[in-house]
Design a protein that fits this description.
Layout: H1 3-11, H2 26-30, H3 32-35, H4 38-47, H5 49-58, H6 63-71, H7 80-90, H8 92-99, H9 101-104, H10 115-118, E1 127-131, H11 137-143, E2 148-152, H12 156-168, E3 174-177, E4 191-197, H13 204-214, E5 215-228, H14 235-242, E6 246-252, E7 255-263
Parallel strand pairs: 1-2, 1-4, 2-3, 4-5
Antiparallel strand pairs: 5-7, 6-7
Helix pairs in contact: 4-5, 4-6, 4-7
Length: about 260
């Protein structure tokens, strides 16, 4: 099943629409060339100059690319409604994060038991980073045990959501931080455990260097990568192993997945 099909299965009941693209962060808009279905985006922009103006205003560097995309359209064959729907559902994870973050927390298939982190390293009394934390479901679980948890997440709406969740469940040791995995806003050697869950590999080399900067000697980096164990190996697997990570596996609500662990020296 493709990623889009899974998104439709999880979130097909939600009223997502093209105008939700106006809510996206700049870093997400900059990723459109590699992430968006291009004929669908081009057709939507040709029909909606407001959206095109918004994209150019937020990301002037995309202007030539957007122009070429719209100019290159094969207009007579365009079925606009179908293309708008394709655009929305190919980007639905981003749109759900903005509009219905609580819906993500209902998807049991994506969750895994935190005992699978606890079996690797001590959490009690520790400073822990959950990088690329999404809605922060994992950060909340970790904050019940650890001393301090930083949820590093570049989407503003998600950081607000995590703050709300922490308050709701009475946690005062969980801090959402604006940042990226390749730019963690914490000092050198300040973290005992850094964990990622389906959140590594945008800029893998820079991310691994940043992790080595913030995790103190003797601390742990653990990546719950999310790739099914029976999938072909990827560049992420090769790079993690070449940088000293040990492969193992974990189980989430959907099956067995790849996990990588490294103790910092
Ligand atoms: C697939 S989601 C996983 C969320 C969460 N860790 C989980 O297990 O449900 C990836 C998250 O990483 C965030 N993200 C995207 N680019 C990132 C980057 N370069 N560094 C850190 N987080 C990033 C996204 O906004 C999103 O919230």
């Amino acid at each position: 099943m493709s990623y889009r099909e899974r998104l439709e299965r999880w979130f097909g009941h939600l009223p997502l629409e093209v105008d939700d693209l106006f809510l996206l962060e700049r870093f997400q808009l900059l990723a459109l060339p590699s992430r968006a279905p291009l004929p669908a985006l081009g057709a939507t922009l040709a029909a909606d100059p407001r959206l095109r103006r918004f994209l150019v205003a937020r990301c002037p560097e995309l202007e030539p690319w957007l122009g070429a995309l719209v100019d290159g359209l094969d207009r007579p064959t365009v079925d606009l409604e179908q293309r708008r729907r394709t655009l929305v559902w190919e980007l639905a994870d981003w749109l759900v994060y903005q509009r219905f973050p609580e819906a993500y927390d209902q998807i049991e298939e994506l969750r895994w038991g935190t005992d699978q982190l606890g079996e690797i390293c001590e959490l009690e009394g520790r400073t822990v980073v959950d990088a690329g934390s999404g809605t922060g479901w994992l950060s909340v679980e970790l904050a019940r045990v650890a001393d301090t948890v930083f949820a590093v997440e570049p989407v503003t709406r998600l950081r607000e959501y995590i703050r709300g969740r922490a308050r709701e469940v009475g946690l005062n040791n969980l801090y959402p931080l604006d940042g990226f995995l390749h730019r963690v806003p914490l000092p050198v050697d300040s973290v005992d455990v850094l964990v990622t869950s389906r959140a590594i590999g945008w800029e893998l080399g820079a991310e691994l260097t940043e992790i080595e900067r913030v995790v103190s000697p003797g601390g742990w980096a653990v990546h719950f990568v999310g790739t099914p164990c029976d999938a072909p190996r990827t560049m992420v697997d090769d790079t993690l192993e070449s940088r000293g990570y040990t492969p193992s596996r974990y189980r989430d609500g959907g099956g067995w997945r790849r996990r990588y662990t490294k103790r910092m020296s």
